[in-house]
Amino acid sequence: MAAELLDVVIVGSGPAGLTAAIYCARSGLKVQVIGKTLGGQAAEASTIENYPGFKHITGIELMERFREHVESLGINILNDEVVGIEEFGGVFLVKTSWSGHFKCRALILAIGAEPKKLGIKGEEEFRGKGVSYCAVCDGPLFRGRNVAVIGGGNSALDAAVYLSALAKTVYLVHRRGELRAAQSLIERLNSRNNVVKKLNKVPIEIGGERFVEWIKLKDASSGAEELLNVNAVFVEAGREVRGNFLKGFVALDDKGQIVVDALCRTSREGVFAAGDATITPYKQVIIAAGDGAKAALSAYEYLKGRGP
Amino acid sequence: MAAELLDVVIVGSGPAGLTAAIYCARSGLKVQVIGKTLGGQAAEASTIENYPGFKHITGIELMERFREHVESLGINILNDEVVGIEEFGGVFLVKTSWSGHFKCRALILAIGAEPKKLGIKGEEEFRGKGVSYCAVCDGPLFRGRNVAVIGGGNSALDAAVYLSALAKTVYLVHRRGELRAAQSLIERLNSRNNVVKKLNKVPIEIGGERFVEWIKLKDASSGAEELLNVNAVFVEAGREVRGNFLKGFVALDDKGQIVVDALCRTSREGVFAAGDATITPYKQVIIAAGDGAKAALSAYEYLKGRGP
Question: Where along chain A do the CATH 3.50.50.60 domains lie?
Answer without folding.
Answer: 5-113+241-306, 131-235
